[in-house]
Design brief:
single chain, about 0% strand, mainly alpha
């Protein structure tokens, strides 16, 4: 995969969301039309699928954005600190595991000598949803990508106290009654969050918010 410009990024983001919307529309319609004796089964399936698409889209969209920035071929000194941290993650982790001065010195030498080199930003094994994309994990992903969290603050309870709690009960095989209207409202809120996340990425790409302002 090589996303070389904002137009290609939008194509990937739209295509990944389109098939998810199609499947979720099918699920929602099944919930709305399900007879009383099977409504709860349809709701349990709906919650599981809704969570899967929530986690899947956030992860994929993040990877697309990192791939886009990777192929900008910018120097380290032209990137914001969060992206330099991504590029140096393995070295920083190594520093944290050792007291060796030789390892620590390599990092110091990098910041003295190598900031003018082209950044090697990985797009794999960076975004970790931990198979449990709760509020804390989502916040960390936003910080990793340099995106603003404040627009989601009013929707916090729908992530942890609605989607994650019910999904985890279902995943653990617990029997739980799910209200149809609650599910439909949750579907709307989660899709709104996904759409907002997509727009954040597009705006950041088009406005080059990943670049460090050098004055």
């Amino acid at each position: 995969m090589k996303i070389i410009n904002a137009e290609k990024l939008v194509e990937h983001l739209d295509a990944d969301l389109a098939w998810r919307k199609k499947e979720l529309t099918y699920i929602v319609n099944n919930v709305k039309s399900a007879p009383e004796n099977s409504i709860n089964s349809n709701l349990r399936i709906g919650i599981a699928i809704l969570y899967a698409h929530w986690e899947g889209y956030i992860k994929n969209a993040s990877i697309y954005y990192l791939n886009f920035i990777r192929h900008k071929r910018l120097n380290y000194e032209n990137l914001k600190p969060n992206f330099i941290a991504i590029a140096l993650r393995s070295q920083l982790n190594e520093c944290g595991r050792t007291n060796k001065a030789s390892i620590h010195t390599k990092i110091v030498e990098f910041f003295i000598q190598d900031l003018s080199k082209v950044a090697e930003i990985p797009d794999k094994n960076i975004i970790n949803t931990q198979s449990n994309l709760n509020l804390e994990v989502f916040k960390e992903i936003l910080f990793t990508l340099g995106l603003d969290y404040s627009i989601y603050e009013l929707k916090e309870k729908f992530i942890d106290y609605k989607l994650l709690k019910i999904r985890n009960d279902v995943a653990h095989g617990d029997y739980i009654e799910i209200d149809k209207e609650d599910f439909l409202n949750l579907y709307t809120y989660i899709m709104n969050i996904i759409e907002s996340f997509k727009e954040q990425i597009i705006n950041s790409a088009e406005n080059e918010n990943f670049k460090r302002n050098i004055t």
